[in-house]
Amino acid sequence: MADxxxxxxxxxxxxxKQLDYKKKIxxxxxxxxxxxxxxxxxxxxxxxxxxxxxxxxxYTDYDTISTVERESATGAIDVRLGSAIxxxxxxxxxxxxxxxxxxxxxxYQIQDIIVAVCGSTVAIASYNGRSIYVQDTEKQLNExxxxxPIRDISVAADxxxxxxxxxxxxxxxxxYPISGDDVYEGRTRMNGSGYPMAVSLSPGGELLxxxxxxxxxxxxxxxxxxYNFGRVGENNSxxxxxxxxxxxxxxxxxxxxxxxxxxxxxxxRLMIYGGDSQKPVSLADYLFDGEVQSVFYNDKYIGxxxxxxxxxxxxxxxxxxxxxxxxxxxxxxxEYTDIFFGQDNFVVYNETECVIITMDxxxxxxxxxxxxxxxxxPTNNPYRYVIVTDSSIDTIQLK
Length: 399
Description:
Mean pLDDT: 89
Number of strands: 32
Largest sheet: 4 strands, antiparallel
Strand content: over 45%
CATH superfamily of the largest domain: YVTN repeat-like/Quinoprotein amine dehydrogenase
Structural class: mainly beta
Low-confidence stretches: none
CATH architecture of the largest domain: 7 Propeller
Helix content: 10-25%
Radius of gyration: 30 Å
Number of domains: 2
Strand order of the largest sheet: 1-32-31-30
C-alpha cells in the first residue's frame, strides 16, 4: 500500500510540474503576444503621426536637383504632353523630355494654330486649314488631310481625331480612327441638329461627345450628344447612344476626363456624364452664379475658377470628382497662367510664383521661382516638379 501511495504522490507531483510548466509556457506566449501587439500599436501610432506631420508639413523653398540647357524660339508656346514638353509655334513643333532630349521635330507653316492634347498625344491643325498632324511623345502617328476647312479638332490618346469641318450650308463632324482609312461622317445644319460648339473624344477613341446649339421657335437650345464607334454604337442610328437636351442654355465646353466620364460647362451650369462606359448618362448637374474664368481637369478632378465674391482672396475654384461629387471650394490670390491637379492636390502658378494646395485645403507651398517659368510639370514624386524656363529644364524638390 505504501508503494502505491508513494507512486500516486510522485505521479501527482509530476502532473503538477507539467501543469506549472504549461502555465509558464502559456504566460510566456501571452507576454510575447502582448509585446508584439504593443510594438505594433506603437509602430502604427508612429506611422500615423508621421503621416499627419507629412500631410501638414508646409514647404517654404526648393532645391534644384538637376538642370538641362535649352533654347526657346521667340513666340513659341510650351505645353504639357504627358511627362514631356511640347513646344509649338507658327513654324513647327517639337517634343522634349525632362532630360532635354528631342524625340521629334515637325515643320509646317500655320498662322492660326489649333492644338488638342489627350495625355501623351497631340493633334495640331490650322483654323481654316486642311492638314492635321498627330504625334505622341515618341513619334509622328498620322497626318490627316481633309477636303474642307477645319474649324475645331479633338484627339484621343490612341491618335483618333475628330474634326469639325465647314461646308457651304452644312457643318461636318468627321472622326478619323488611327487604325485605318474608315471615316465616321456626321453632317449638321443650324436649323436641324444644330451647330457643333464643342467636341471631345474619350481617351480610348471609342466615344465622342458633341455639344450642338440651335434655335427652336426663337428659343436657344443645346443638345449634348454622345456617339459610340464600337459594337454598341453600330446598332444605333448614326452611332448615337445618348442625348441630353437643355433649353435656354449655351454649352461651349465639353470634355472627357477618362473613358467613362465626361463633363460639359454651360452658362451657370456644370453637367457630369458617365455611369456606363458604352452609353454615358447624366450623373449630376450643378448650378452656379459666377462667371467661369477657366476650366481645368485631369482624369479624377474638374476645377472651375471664378472671381471670389467673398473673403480676402481673389479667386475661388470649385472642384468636383469623376464620381460627380463636389470635393470643395478653394481660395487663392495667385494670378495664374496655369493650374493642374496632382493625386491629392492642385498647383497654381505663373511665371514668378507658385501655390500648392491639398484637397484638404492645406497650403503646402507658397513661394517664388528663382527663374521665369514658362511651364511646370508634375513627376511621380508628389513634391518634385519639372519647371521649364527660357534657357533650361530644371527638376526641383520642395523643402
